[in-house]
């Protein structure tokens, strides 16, 4: 195969597909999306169940401020539903379950107050980090030289508050608090909005799953999306025509959008080599992976018997959430396991998870109708679920995140300054790259 297009897009995750759809909406039809995998969607992925229906192995939830996602879903005829059952999270630490109150009043609960105080301090610090240029935050170098864990240690006085905070970071955000940069974490949370991230980010999910949005874009783009087309080489991006070598042949393009996790970009050979700052960014980029599991039951029989269906255990590094459909036609519990579990054999992992479900939801939870797990550690084209940047990288190479190199433009959720690491960020980064590319093509055609 050899083809000539105006725009080549590398990666058919929701970011690359949003870029392609935006270009189409801007009247640019000469485009090709090259996807390494035999499917589209990247980190959005439906899994059909033997017992009927599907579960989502990747990105699932959305909140009311994720307007690019909500609009795109609507445009693609994919409708929202309730994301999960109402109810607060129970935090488990040293065999005790605690429901954290945002504004504790009881003098006796020192740990609750300690936690709330640390959260308030963290929120205020988040707001000091510029969304577009986090490396220009006041004291950026100091914030980036510190780990999130060190900050938690300094800003809490009780073991419980420290453990709850670390548990939030590990389970809800990204990775080991003792390995990720404080500045990175502050920026990550600020791009979402502190309250939106904690309170409304799981309000909705989508009928048919988030991957359906990708599938519907592909249906409209037709043959402009190529599967099993892993791009291994991009050359001539400093000239008038870029050459992309993929498994299926050669593609020549005037402009390129690379819509992948920065870490996976390091596997592509660039001629000439990318500037040093870009190389540093992609080679030092770190990620982490959860293992996601689903337990399916005939009915959500536990509802009404337990006070909440959302448990985050700091002791076990497991988070489980009741996501049963509102009409209670079946019971569905989703779980996220910390990366530590990846080293266990699958059978051992399942045994531990079922025991945990038995303790939290009731003994009958040990006998699900169906059990599904998905290990994102093993996915060749994603290199992890979510980014977990080490100290120092954002201040030394962050400015490469959004600077095009010749005719190469960058997309992928990691490049977004709004809801980075979420589907919303992926869509926005794709749409922004598409608009930049369209601007360049127009300026060429008018000169
Ligand atoms: C378990 C899990 C739970 C999550 N939960 C949520 C959630 O509830 N809500 C939310 O908003 N977000 C969630 N996320 C995050 C969300 O899924 C991602 O932010 C989003 O899907 C990223 O999209 P992307 O297009 O930027 O990247 P990706 O989806 O990673 O797309 C990149 C694409 O590039 C392809 N590719 C890689 N290398 C090459 C190559 N050399 N040549 C060609 N193609 C290549 C890959 O196969 C992939 O299709 C979750 C993610 C995971 C994994
Ligand atoms: Mg994707």
Automatic annotation (TrEMBL):
SUPFAM superfamilies: FAD-linked reductases, C-terminal domain, FAD/NAD(P)-binding domain. InterPro entries: Amino_oxidase, FAD/NAD-bd_sf, Flavin_amine_oxidase, Flavin_MAO. Keywords: Oxidoreductase. Its cofactor is FAD. This is Amine oxidase. It comes from Brasilonema octagenarum UFV-OR1. Pfam families: Amino_oxidase. Belongs to the flavin monoamine oxidase family. Residues 14-437 form the Amine oxidase domain.
């Amino acid at each position: 195969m050899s083809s000539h297009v105006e725009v080549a897009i590398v990666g058919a995750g929701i970011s690359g597909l949003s870029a392609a759809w935006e270009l189409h909406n801007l009247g640019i039809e000469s485009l090709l999306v090259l996807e390494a995998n035999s499917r589209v969607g990247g980190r959005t992925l439906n899994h059909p169940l033997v017992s009927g229906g599907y579960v989502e192995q990747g990105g699932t939830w959305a909140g009311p401020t994720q307007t690019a996602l909500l609009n795109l879903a609507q445009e693609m005829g994919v409708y929202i539903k309730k994301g999960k059952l109402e109810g607060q999270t129970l935090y488990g630490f040293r065999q005790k379950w605690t429901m954290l109150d945002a504004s504790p009043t009881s003098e006796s609960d020192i740990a609750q107050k300690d936690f709330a105080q640390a959260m308030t301090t963290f929120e205020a610090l988040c707001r000091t980090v510029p969304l577009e240029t986090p490396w220009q935050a006041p004291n950026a170098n100091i914030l980036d030289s510190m780990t999130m864990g060190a900050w938690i240690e300094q800003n809490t006085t009780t073991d419980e508050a420290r453990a709850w905070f670390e548990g939030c970071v590990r389970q809800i955000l990204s990775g080991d608090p003792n390995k990720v940069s404080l500045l990175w974490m502050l920026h990550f949370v600020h791009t979402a909005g502190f309250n939106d991230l904690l309170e409304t980010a799981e309000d909705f999910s989508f009928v048919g799953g988030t991957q359906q949005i990708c599938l519907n874009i592909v249906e409209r783009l037709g043959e402009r999306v190529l599967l099993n087309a892993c791009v291994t080489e991009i050359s001539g991006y400093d000239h008038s025509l870029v050459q992309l070598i993929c498994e299926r042949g050669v593609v020549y393009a005037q402009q390129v959008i690379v819509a992948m996790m920065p870490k996976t970009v390091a596997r592509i050979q660039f001629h000439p080599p990318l500037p040093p700052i870009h190389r540093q960014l992609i080679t030092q980029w770190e990620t982490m992976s959860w293992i996601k599991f689903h337990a399916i039951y005939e009915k959500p029989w536990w509802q009404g018997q337990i006070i909440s269906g959302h448990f985050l255990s700091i002791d076990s590094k497991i988070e489980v959430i009741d996501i049963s459909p509102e009409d209670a036609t079946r019971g569905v519990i989703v779980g996220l396991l910390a990366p530590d579990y990846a080293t266990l054999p699958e059978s051992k992992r399942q045994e531990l998870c079922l025991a945990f479900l038995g303790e939290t939801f009731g003994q009958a939870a040990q006998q699900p109708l169906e059990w599904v797990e998905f290990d994102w550690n093993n996915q060749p084209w994603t290199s992890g679920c979510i980014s977990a940047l080490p100290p120092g990288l954002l201040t030394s190479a962050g400015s490469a995140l959004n600077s095009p190199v010749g005719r190469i433009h960058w997309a992928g959720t990691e490049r977004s300054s709004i809801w980075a690491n979420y589907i919303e960020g992926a869509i926005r980064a794709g749409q922004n790259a598409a608009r930049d590319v369209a601007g360049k093509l127009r300026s060429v055609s008018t000169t």
